[in-house]
Amino acid sequence: MPPCRRFRSGEPVTHTSESATVEARRSESSSAAGGSPSRHAAVGPGDAALLSLLNVEVLYADVILALKGVSLQVAPGGCVALLGANGAGKSTTLKAISGVIESDDGRVSAGSVAFEGRAIRGHDTASIVRHGLVHVMEGRRVLPHMTVEQNLIIGGHLFPSAAQMRRALDGVYQAIPRLADLRTRTAGYLSGGEQQMLVIGRAIMAEPKLMLIDEPSLGLAPRMVEEVFAVLRRLRTQGLALLIVEQNTRVALEIADYGYVMEGGRIVLEGRADELRANEDVREFYLGLDREGGRKSFREVKHYRRRKRWLG
Ligand SMILES: Nc1ncnc2c1ncn2[C@@H]1O[C@H](COP(=O)(O)OP(=O)(O)OP(=O)(O)O)[C@@H](O)[C@H]1O
Ligand SMILES: [Mg+2]
Question: Which domain holds residue 223?
Answer without folding.
Answer: 16-278
